[in-house]
Recover the amino acids of this structure.
């Protein structure tokens, strides 16, 4: 008999919304034109793309002409960092990123470092928060861009992006401010103009849309160098035939995420708190990674002393529970999460980390399933450690 799946990994990806799947199927069947073509089929496809652009823009507090569609959040982050460096090199040669960014930012910054850009890494507090004053202390006259994520993908902490942007500009008004907002949309209200950032990355699959589609917000007046050349689509910033069906799905998903954000936050937050209270009652020495005071409601990142995260994940998976670990396995060696390491968590404790992330599709039954099996799994994992 097949074990029922209890999905608590919404920070990794979300189920595609039924209305999104239906709309995408219709586009694939009926509106297959190339939006760069001038004939009627092409014009119809372009119209669908522009409608979706308006939906995404409205969902994040931007103007439609400030939204550039990409192949996902990683591409959007890369376009932001590399595009800024390509345009500004010569006048500026320094970049600042937080130490616990997603690898889409960290690895792009590392690559730029091999090309002559000096990169500084802002430390993160043990609470999982980045201090605006600390960010500002790294800014120089030669700083081209600062990148701090709006919501950390692992521990779910919400960063004070508006305050960071203000602090950066107080030191150097010419420095661009970028935020990886992939985990923000759908989990908190997003208003990019109020946040006063210049660049922001998003991914459709985090909000009930399809994988392989994202967007970069490029504030009006900000110039970037293209990182892909060809047909000149997306104002020349992202050449390539547009994924019309995926973009339509993204538009609907972004619209839904923005509309339901408050209701979802309240409902999911109650479930997250019940999960934490239940686990603390059975596993009193568990550690919550990062502050609960500034965190998206669906995230619960914990470390359990005396366990290995990989063991916990495997046993939870066998019980039909899908979640993530803060550890990454590479070349046969298990290394603690760079996020938890940046926050100063001891390696031994960081190795026993698990992230439960609830979303729109989560139910009380999912929480009950974790509470029913995790205490026994922890006991088993501790015996095996």
């Amino acid at each position: 008999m097949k074990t029922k799946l209890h999905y608590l990994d919404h920070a990794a990806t979300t189920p595609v919304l039924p209305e999104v799947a239906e709309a995408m199927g219709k586009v694939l069947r009926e509106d297959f034109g190339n939006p760069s073509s001038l004939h009627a089929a092409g014009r119809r496809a372009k119209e669908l793309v522009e409608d979706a652009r308006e939906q995404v823009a409205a969902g994040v507090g931007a103007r439609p002409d400030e939204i550039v569609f990409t192949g996902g959040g990683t591409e959007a982050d890369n376009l932001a960092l590399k595009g800024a460096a390509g345009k500004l090199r010569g006048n500026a040669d320094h970049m600042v990123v937080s130490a616990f960014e997603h690898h889409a930012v960290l690895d792009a910054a590392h690559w730029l470092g091999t090309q002559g850009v000096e990169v500084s890494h802002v430390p993160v507090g043990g609470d999982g928060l980045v201090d605006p004053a600390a960010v500002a202390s790294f800014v120089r006259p030669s700083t081209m861009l600062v990148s701090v994520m709006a919501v950390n993908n692992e521990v779910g902490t919400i960063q004070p992006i508006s305050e960071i942007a203000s602090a950066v500009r107080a030191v150097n008004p010419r420095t661009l401010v970028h935020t990886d907002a992939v985990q923000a949309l759908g989990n908190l209200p997003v208003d990019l103009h109020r946040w006063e950032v210049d660049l922001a990355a998003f991914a459709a699959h985090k909000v009930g849309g399809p994988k392989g589609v994202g967007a970069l917000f490029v504030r009006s007046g900000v110039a970037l160098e293209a990182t892909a050349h060809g047909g000149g689509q997306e104002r020349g910033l992202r050449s390539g035939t547009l994924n019309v069906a995926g973009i339509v799905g993204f538009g609907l998903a972004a619209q839904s995420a923005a509309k339901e954000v408050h209701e979802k936050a309240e409902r999911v937050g109650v479930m997250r708190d019940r999960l934490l209270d239940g686990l603390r009652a059975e596993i009193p020495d568990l550690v919550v990674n990062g502050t609960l005071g500034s965190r998206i409601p669906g995230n619960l990142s914990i470390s359990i002393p005396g366990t290995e995260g990989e063991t916990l994940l495997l046993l939870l998976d066998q019980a039909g529970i899908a979640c993530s670990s803060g550890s990454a396995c590479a070349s046969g060696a298990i290394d603690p999460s760079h996020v938890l390491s940046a926050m100063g968590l001891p390696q031994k404790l960081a190795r026993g980390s698990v992230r439960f992330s609830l979303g729109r599709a989560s139910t009380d039954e999912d929480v009950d399933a974790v509470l029913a099996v995790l205490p026994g799994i922890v006991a088993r994992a501790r015996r095996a450690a």
Summary: DSSP finds twelve helices and 15 strands in the chain. Residues 244-282 form the longest helix (39 residues). Residues 25 and 77 are 28 Å apart (CA to CA).
